[in-house]
Design goal:
The chain is 57% helix and 0% strand. With 261 residues, the protein is mostly helical. The chain folds into two domains: 130 residues, no CATH class; 105 residues, no CATH class. The relative contact order is 0.09.
């Protein structure tokens, strides 16, 4: 029997999955893992064997909770492919300038939701188990609304704790490489805003790494129970560190130039 959802609506009632989603979950619980994963790879919605994305979210969360990391990774890849195909259709290179970066930003936001859910944000993905397309559309719409001159992002470079002004250890360590021996600059709110603006100019792959560092995620871990940047971005830790290092090099040049001006 599928596990109940934890999140509650404004009426105080717990979220419930549509009957057809519950039926899919109940049916697939009796499958061998390999057979279930094979069916998750079907991408054509017209196929009678196509599994709704709501169901993939359920099994993704369950596999993480049970420590089935290889199953989690396989489902994550299947979801990532679905997201990529959806975004290629809705935000095509032919119709929108900078479409690739926009797609990466939107998919990155979705992957961050998964990462936060894995690290204990109970109920964060519950609505994705009810109406996946609607939940994902909300992420896409939010990102698209921030495009343009009015989209200046001045979120402080810190963690999600308190007022958001706390610098994560990883970002502080990375930032020290380009502060010319003056790490006290991180205590200056004006400098933090300059740092935020500079990060916004980075290529999307480097920007995503710095954003995840800001949220306190570590690059890699030998503990499979820890959600890391390498796992979120589906790449090895060396690639993540290379992106971080390239980002720091660019940030150093940008911020030193601003100091001169």
């Amino acid at each position: 029997m599928p596990e109940p959802l934890k999140k509650k609506g404004l009426d105080g009632q717990s979220y419930t999955r549509p009957p057809e989603i519950e039926a899919w979950i109940t049916r697939l619980e009796d499958f061998d893992v390999s057979d279930r994963l094979t069916q998750f790879e079907i991408l054509t919605k017209r196929s009678r064997d196509y599994v709704p994305s709501e169901v993939l979210i359920y099994f993704l969360r369950r596999s993480w909770a049970s420590g089935a990391r290889s199953e989690f990774d396989a489902i994550f890849r299947a979801l990532a492919l679905r997201v990529e195909r959806s975004l290629l259709f809705t935000i095509s290179d032919a119709r929108m300038a900078g479409a690739l970066a926009i797609r990466e930003d939107i998919s990155g936001r979705f992957f961050e939701c998964i990462a936060k859910d894995c690290t204990g944000r109970a109920g964060l993905l519950d609505f994705f188990e009810i109406r996946f397309d609607k939940a994902f559309a909300a992420i896409r719409t939010s990102a698209l609304r921030q495009i343009g001159p009015s989209a200046a992002n001045t979120v402080p470079i810190g963690t999600d704790d308190g007022d958001g002004l706390e610098i994560s250890d990883e970002v502080e360590h990375a930032a020290s490489d380009f502060l010319s021996g003056d790490p006290s600059k991180l205590d200056d709110p004006a400098f933090r805003l300059e740092l935020t603006a500079a990060i916004d100019t980075l290529p999307s792959d480097q920007k995503r790494v710095m954003e995840l560092l800001r949220q306190g995620f570590q690059i890699d871990s030998k503990d499979n129970n820890v959600m890391t940047i390498a796992r979120i971005l589906q790449c090895d830790e060396r690639t993540v560190r290379n992106r971080r290092d390239r980002a720091c090099k660019v940030l150093k040049a940008v911020l030193q130039q601003e100091d001169v001006l």
